[in-house]
Amino acid sequence: MTNSATSSTQTEPSRKGSLAAFKGLLPFLRPYRRQFFLAAIALVVAAASTLAIPYAFKQMIDLGFGAAAGARSIRHVDATFLALFGVATVLALATAARFFTVSWLGERVTADIRSAVYAHVVSQSPEFFETTQTGEVLSRITTDTTLIQAVVGTSISMALRNVLLFVGGLAMLFFTSVKLSSIILGLLVLVVVPIVLFGRRVRKLSRDSQDRIADASAMAGEILNAMPTVQAFTHEHIESARFGASVEGAFNTAMKRIRARALLTMFAIVMVFGTIVFVLWLGAHAVLAGSMTGGDLGQFILYASIVAGSIGALSEVMGEAQRAAGATERLLELLSARSEIRNPAKPLALPARAANGAALALSDVTFTYPSRPNTEALSHLSLTIRPGETVAVVGPSGAGKTTLFQLLLRFYDPQSGTITLDGVDIRQLDLHTLRDAIGIVPQDTVIFSADAMENIRYGRAGATDAEVIQAAKLAAAHEFIERLPNGYKSFLGERGVRLSGGQRQRIAIARALLKNPPLLLLDEATSALDAESERLVQGALEVAMVGRTTIIIAHRLATVQRADRILVMEDGRIVETGTHASLVAQGGIYANLAALQFHSVHVERQGVTVD
Q1: How confident is the model over 489-514, as pLDDT tens digits?
Q2: Are strands 416-421 and 519-523 parallel, antiparallel or unpaired?
Q3: Within 177-235, where are the H helices?
Q4: Contact in structure between 207 and 329 (CB atoms under 8 Å)
Q5: Domains of the chain
Q6: pLDDT in tens, 379-424
Q7: What DSSP element (H or E) covers 435?
Q8: How much is the pTM?
Q9: Which backbone phi and psi does 68 adopt, to 5 degrees?
């Protein structure tokens, strides 16, 4: 996967120029060629209107106030001002049309980019999120796209407008006076070269500034999602200080960028206007010498002002474009990340099931996590599970139990070996086909910021309210949901903060039951339940397991005693297999775990406290 480039700590300047970076936006711009064409027409009309104004002033000066004006001067002045009003009206209409069109384009393209980035990110495998912080992704979707919106919705239009004004103004300068224009052009070339070179440093600082902002956002997101832990350990001041230091770092980096841009702007304005003042001084002497008319000089001054203003505006736009180029590169890096977990080119279909439940088989599966390449999470694991069978997987932490579930869901692919569902290699299945066939109750329950009805309906989007309520009843969740202020329409809070751990677990169980898959994965499904709730849920799960294949991960052995088969894992291998009774009789790892747990339960029931 190429997501290593997405790390927020990357500050090495990209070798691409700003124009090369913006090429990546072309797929988002192409669908709106018609709007760009309309904006271009409005842009050309507005620029032409602006360039017509100095010529009108020349006519007014020479024909209205010159020595040859005579009695017709009033008529020429009236006609000139009437023409100026007409030009101003055209300029106003064209500018309004340009503003509306390019603003619409900026909003539309930015919305498309945000949707594309989000859709791309949610399709990534867990490996992507091992190396990319959520806050970093959110920063790119929000802050970076806002910079691109400014470029598409404003800067591109301003750049093109000022390019037209620069070219048109320069042409009219040569038309007015070749000598003065040649001098001004030569001096401007000497000015523009250092501006461009210095602009490269501004671009690097812009990229660094965005990275520091992303760092601060990532830190804030991580801490806000763990506030109970932060407060329990009284780390509020520590975390505030950490965030403050991160914000200060972002501020200091931003100040470097601002100072560089300020110096660039100051240099550009002083040099450009100094050049123009010098040339106008020469022009004033030409009028005094009689080689130019007053109207010519006035026209030259106005066109020189337009050219100078367009250069100043272009330098400002260049700074914005350089900053947005850094943002564009960051977004394109995110879009270029490719998950190793992909749909096959020609996915196979699952065969029709002759029996209830799915058949599952693992053959010599070995797997290591990308972040721990030298440690085998699963080692040469082989396993066959019949349709409708209930299999429990137990073992110490780190034995590979949860890893097994992640491979079954194809969050990762094993380095060697195969996994088949109903006889089909899961790598040959469409990811949605595979995951639609699997229901899971994870150890860490996820509750969304929605009401109880929608949280359960997440298991099957098209389920009716009655089906949702039935699933809640099976999961022993109906009673406590009914007691909520608004019943099934009660908002559960962000991450389910309004529910207890056991209630959140029962919502997750109801979600899985609503999905009604042929393969059910229970990862510590009753770990957060009290004794009474566990009894209710166990009964519901026993009903739910009928007619489907079920794999249960449990540390509490009381929940797996009635499984058809119990697998004991250690160091990524299956070391024992059998029923509860047969494994206890073997006197191995399972027997030791059982002895410890059931003895502990017995002691608790006797009311004995063990130090």
Answers
A1: 888 877 677 787 778 888 888 888 88
A2: unpaired
A3: 178-224, 227-232
A4: yes
A5: 3-10+17-336 (1.20.1560.10), 356-437+519-580 (3.40.50.300), 443-516 (3.40.50.300)
A6: 999 999 999 899 999 988 888 898 999 999 998 999 999 999 999 9
A7: helix 431-436
A8: 0.65
A9: -95, 5
